[in-house]
Structures are given as structure tokens and as C-alpha cells.
Amino acid sequence: MPRQTRQERYNARPPRQNRGIIFFIIIVVLFGIVKIAHGTYKSLSDTVTNSYQKANIKHRRDVNTVIKHKKPLSILLLGTDTGELKRTDKGRTDTIMLVTINPKTEKTTLYSIPRDTMVAIPGYEKDFPSKINSVYTYTNISDTVNTISNYLNVPIDYYALVNMGGLEKLVNQVGGVTIKSPLTFTFSADTAHETGKHRYKFYQGSSTFKYAADGHHFKTYHKMNGAAALAFSRMRYMDPNGDYGRTQRQRMVISAILKKTASPQMLFNKQFMHSISANVRTNLTFKEMLSIAGAYYQAKNNVVTKSATEQTVMHNGVSYQVLSRSEKQKTTNQLRQSLNLKAAKTGPIVAGNAKKARIPFDIEMALKE
């Protein structure tokens, strides 16, 4: 498939446009690498070490004890809208997934948190309302993990932060993916809308799609390369389910990648491994990956996807997703149950100090429902 260069994408990018959509599959890092690591310790250790980044996370429990006793663990997956298109700024975490892995039930849960979720960022309540995807922009990785953990009252044991270059490179490394689209839509990689160059046409219920580099002369394809998977995952404005629909497509790509990485041949591929390490930062050490390999590996065969039900609220012309107190409690209940933890009250309604945020009456009513 003809593929635009980074320079072409950068030149075509409208100023200040949010190109945010990229995520990385921590399940590949966790369940793929560790399964074969015993036989290739040195080379894999060097590769994984390149991804390691310590974070000052306020752990709610002893992570070493969790792994030692084979208890369910959690990983916060964050995808930033940078790393491609010559974008080197810090960016926002446009993809937020809390992954829980339960070795007892042999189940992995991918819980999506919409990027537009309204919050008051701790320490920056004066800027309320903010979106949860900007917590990282205002603070750092440690504060981001701590904020989300406190917001939902759920322990977060590890994190994985991935830049925008990760998805496209990873899909190319696995040889492309085949996915049936849940809806029919047209998307331009240049404009993030239906018109423009580098247009893709996806069709509901079909894995066949069309692509036109000039935006007009389409050719038919049956397998997505990295650029196509990125386009398939990025579209939001034409989806009747908005960001919920987009996170659904993200999870479909995750599942497709999982299937392709199941073979030892792929995981022994040094170029594939380098692609992982070059685009992800995590506080999972290689030793920790090895120690959890046997007990958690089977959980990758039963992947459940969930997302909170939020309502759209407009404030000063900006659209936000509001998680009411009752829905927020439901989310906390589900996550704690997946971690085999006792039920507990959910965290602060807007993450930060509500009094300092000076929440308007109409928003306060939406939050309290």
C-alpha cells in the first residue's frame, strides 16, 4: 500500500490539530516476551531494559507480595498523541486503559476511560474543568498514575506509556492485521475527517477496505498495515458512539495484534522486540516480567473489554464526558472485583479538590446523579 512519509503528514497537519490516538499492547509486553524469555535471557533483558522507567507511584499495596502470591494485578496503559508527525512535545494521553489480569479466573480485563472525562486535576483545580487526558500534560507519569488510582480508588501496580509511533510500527512488524469493521466510514489521515488525501474507506462487517493516496483513486486491500490500522483506530467524529466507538476499535486492533504475536517466531524477532522497546516506557522490570510469566500467561486467552457509561456535557463550547457518582461507583466496583478486592467507596468525584474547583451548578448536578 502506498504510504505517506512523515514529512508529508507533518506538512498536511492543520495547526494545533489533535491527532491523538495511539496505544500500545502491554499484554504483548507482559504475556508475549515473558513466555519465551527463559531461553533468550540476555538479548531480551537488554531489549526490555531500554523500556524501563522508574516512577514514584504511591502503591496501595506491596507489589512484590502480589506477584509472589499470584494475586490479580493491574497495569495502567497510556497512549500519548506524540512521537510521530515530527511531534516531540509531551502530548496528552489520548488513550487510557486500566488493564487487570486475574490468574485465578484466567481473565484479562481492558477497561477504557474516555479521554474527554471531566476532572479537576490535583494542584490545578483553578483550571477546572479539565479533561483526564491532560493530567499527564499538566503533571508527570507518577502524578498521572496516582491521580487515576485515587480517582477510582483502585490500586495501580504498573504502568506503560506509549508514544504515537508505537501502533503503526508494531502492526507493520507483525505483518499487518485483519479486522472486520464495526461500521462504515471514510477517514482521511491528513484531515481526520472524510475529505482530504490519504483517504480510507472501511465497511461494516467486512475486513476489506479501500485506500487512495490522492484521496480519489481507490485501491482495495484485505489486510491493514500500520498506517491503515492507525487510521481505523483514530476516527472519532463520524462514529455515532463517539469516543466509545473509537475505544472499541482500539481494542479490536489489540486483539488482532495478540493473535499475530502468539507465535514464538514473532517474539524471537529482534526487530519486533526493538519496535516494542523503542516506543514504550514502563516500570515493569525484566525480572518482574519473568517472575509473573507462568502464573499470568493463560489470562491472555480470555480478554474482556469494558467502558464506563458517561454523559456528554457542554461547557463554554467544549464537550466533556461526565462520569456521575453512581456510574463511577459502578466502575470502581467492577475493577476491584476483577482484582479480587473488597468493595469500597469510589474516589473523589472530580479527582481533585471539588471545593477548589468551584464546580458550576449544572455540572455539579450531572456529577451527583
Automatic annotation (TrEMBL):
InterPro entries documented for this protein: LytR/CpsA/Psr_CW_biosynth, LytR_CpsA_psr
One Pfam assignment: LytR_cpsA_psr
Keyword Transmembrane helix: yes
Domain Cell envelope-related transcriptional attenuator span(s) in chain numbering: 92-262
TM ranges: 21-41
Keyword Nucleotide-binding annotated: no
Assigned keywords, A-Z: Membrane, Transmembrane, Transmembrane helix
Family to which the UniProt record says this protein belongs: Belongs to the LytR/CpsA/Psr (LCP) family.
Protein name: LytR family transcriptional regulator
Protein source organism: Paucilactobacillus vaccinostercus DSM 20634
